[in-house]
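Q: Could you fold this chain for me?
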Amino acid sequence: MAKRMIFITGGCRSGKSRFALHYANEHYSKKIFLATSEILDDEMARRVENHKRMRGPEWRTIEEPVEIVETIRQSGEGGAVILLDCITLWLSNLLIKWNDATRIMEEVDRLAKGLQESPASFIIVSNEVGMGIVPADPLGRRFRDLSGMANQKIAEVADTVVFMVSGISLFLKGGT
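A: Sure. Below is the predicted structure, expressed as structure tokens.
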């Protein structure tokens, strides 16, 4: 299969990860799951274990909460797919680490370039957080704004953009 870049966005529990896993399992034999979450409590540990079981043993899992651009450079190979789940957790990790919107958006630019330069295919998952109420605090508004700008940047370089609503995929860009 030729190199593809699919960007999947939508609300929480909209079916993004399920759609991404199904697509990867249907179209690729070499599969890498790049997880950006950090296990900080028991509930998150249970979620991570559940996700690993759902993926199955044919997936190679890489857990990297911050340095995903370098991880992609080291892990991307032709014929493989990297499922990056998810951009919004990664942005949250960067915001906690740096608290600098300019630096974070520079890293998003580096990611967009790295996605294009890698020989691997990509399925990128991100939450759409800009469709709800305006957050009451400055940090929440900064996160919402960064998420929206990052999603636009990734959608721009993606071949296909899918918006998930209630488990239904709506193709916004590219084919089905």
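A (continued): The mean pLDDT is 94.
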